[in-house]
Design goal:
The complex is a heterodimer. By secondary structure, chain A is an alpha/beta fold. Chain A has helices at residues 43-50, 72-78, 94-105, 111-117, 133-145, 163-178, 190-196, 214-221, 234-243, 262-274, 288-300, and strands at 3-14, 17-28, 32-36, 58-63, 79-82, 151-155, 182-186, 199-204, 207-212, 225-230, 247-250, 253-258, 280-284. Chain A is elongated. Helix content of chain B is 64%, strand content 6%.
Chain lengths: 310, 370
Amino acid sequence: MADAISVRGLVKQYGPVTAVAGIDFSVAEGTVFSFLGPNGAGKTTTTEILEGLRRASSGEVRVLGLDPWTDGRELHRRIGVIPQDFRFFDKITPKESIEYYRALFHTQVDPTALLAQVELSDKANARYDTLSGGQKQKLGLALALTNVPEICFLDEPTTGLDPHARRAIWEVIRRLKREGRTVFLTTHYLEEAELLADRVAIIHHGQIIASGTPQEIIRAHGRPARMRVDGPPSIAEYLRSHLGLPVDASDGRVEVDLARKEDALRVLEALQASGLPWSSFATEQDTLEDVFVRLVGRMDDGAIKSEAAP
Amino acid sequence: MNPRHVAADFRVVARSYLRNSAALFFSLFFPIILILLFGAIFSNAGSTTVSVEVLNEDHNSPASQAFLAALSNTSIVSVHLVNVSTVDPAGFAAWLGQNGYAVGLVVPLGFQANYTNHTPVNLTLYTNPENPSAAGAAEGAVQGVANAFNLRAANGSAIVGLGPGATVGSQIYTYIDFLIPGLIGFTILTSPMFSMVDITNSYRKDGIFRELSLTPLTRAEWLTSRVIWYVLLSFVTAGIMIVTGVALYGAHVLLTAGLIPYLVVGPFLFVSLGMLAGSIAKTPESAAIIGNIITFPMMFLSGTFFPVSSFPTWLQPVAEVLPLYYVIDGMNQVMLFSNASRAAFDLAVVLVIAVAIFLLAIRFFRWRDE
């Protein structure tokens, strides 16, 4: 599959400050790519360079085969963008806004259908300044889709939204993917990325510190799976001496690291054999969020430089 | 420049404006209030006119008599002739003070001879500093009439036309006549300037320019739709002001097609200037300051509320560097004096400035950052 976006050695400097310190990644056509990172990591700068809103200091950037800065006008006809904190004309309604974009882009989309798609039909004729935060974001999304874009750039599209509005936007993203369009999603919500993204890259201090599918990242950077058992501390003693697995006991809980999935069975058999009283068990695995917090935290402690992966 | 883009953007501008009650108030009712206010202050005929004691040393000349008749016709002042044989010209100031008169005017001997020869002739106006409003009104009236006389002379009208029996009164302009072109100029300046400075900044801050930069709309198209809107608005406000001025204060204005170019080029100039001011500013605060620095001198010194000819002579050259001066002067020429050549010159000045500012605004105005 061809790359919708490819970035090689991208650097962006603001005076003496390096916002993006030489990153490489690519996004395959028709996939959802999620770009993650703490505030100030270089997410928005990178996104704006891809959108042709900022000029790269060095490196090669191709979006749909175009240089975003020099071929901006051509590119903007083929991409849709919903910026972080989308704002629009106060006194204009969603329907009028879409008609406006439709005239600018010379497309034939039906405003009513587009508003239904983003679940904003009931506010089609309400002025922008009367819309809620979620409704404004939905309008931003509808406008980003007015030109039937090949790539959608969604910059924190669900920040500050209630769960219902967030789900509505997720649904639109899934539909875009089904339609074979490429989605470039930046978000603060790790579960959102885990849920929607085919591939993820984590940027921190201007460098990509992890990339791959969410599962690959969790496997590479997460802690092993664990089994948690509720019961007396004597269980910990018993398991440690009988299994040879790392066991951690604290707060009335016992945690056993599972190196392989067969270890789960061994723990349960040992528990049964011990005759000790235990009430319940559960297995736990790191989420993308756990991995993200750990990676970013460790890098801030200065320990992760060697792990930085392209 | 794609007309479809301009039309689409124009619809957004018009809807935004018409749905904004504050903007509507300032563009439609504020002009009426201005005319009512200034008209009421300065056009009060009769009881509150300023008395002027006039010593006419050239009392036998038709020119001086025509001048005083014209002065009387302004209805800003009432002229009282002082008997030349009873008052010594050298002691005129003292005589005014002794008798409690606030304003006196001396028309010198040889007024007509000088006027006929196009030689500068100076009237002497005595005013009492303790009564500045009377002094100001009298000075304005005398200057206004002098201006009309000077224009006549410059037009090459024969002095004979000023002789006794000539209908001088119909040629004389009252304050309200000057006020209408002045206040039309005032709104042509203020409504686009304030709104463009504000919009240029808030759209940048809110990321709306960033949004628009991702569409095929160009900066020139964006600016053009706003120019069109403010041109339409200037026609509406000019109409409102003319109707109010004529209906309430009997203003004498000529409604000619010559007014139209000013109502087009004026807004074109100030929409561009507002956007330029908003674009070169880095913050909303500095934008407001830059906007005010540009706007306020023009608001008061371009002949908006008072004819520039009534300004102190040292201030008049200042007015002549302000673009609005040429808009208002041009409108005065077409609406009052029918002076086509000077109107054309004013229009040319405005047009050149407007095109230059438009190009500068497009150059400095950025959708996106480096």
